[in-house]
Design a protein that fits this description.
about 200 residues; alpha/beta; eight-stranded mixed sheet; three-stranded antiparallel sheet; about 25% strand; globular
Amino acid sequence: MYYPGIRLRRLHRADLSISYPGDLTISENDTLVLDSMLGKLAQWLRMAGIYVVFSPFFRDEELIDVEDIVVTRDEELFMRRLSCSRRCILVRSSNILRQLSLMLDTAEIDEKYFPVPKYCTTCGGALREIDVREVLDKVPENVSKKFKTVYICEKCGKVYWRGSHHLRIGERFRSAFNLCKHIDRIIICIRGRSCMLRILNI
């Protein structure tokens, strides 16, 4: 479906996203820059293997001309990016699971995906697999006995391992993918620019 001339203020539903350009997809070579309101989403997208730049101190003026894809909940920032023909995604929902679902749909990640340690959820640095004996001072004793290898962030030094929490994370992703089945996708036109509107109908 194609709807010309949609005004943003007419889209009152909370569980939606709008991406520009309309055929925007997120590839493994892309960088997402998330505004200061999306810290929790930044963590989950990093777990999805997407490279994310986030700071709670980002100001709109810093994000207007960024070359990478900007993800925001700020309608004004989205419209300013749109006016400059800069790639951007407006996420309306305040619910993290629904935010994640809308973004997974945009990234076209296979629903069989299971989180792999790739980026640090805290700082976004690359993770490297190492022998657990190298970081005995950074992990609980039971972890050093159970795992031969763990992952360390090359930027901040945080250590990760595949504990029971990893299974819970996988369940969260499965829930998000189930929500993706209820997303309607509509091409709309905002200020003469073709955008993709995703509406979560559940």
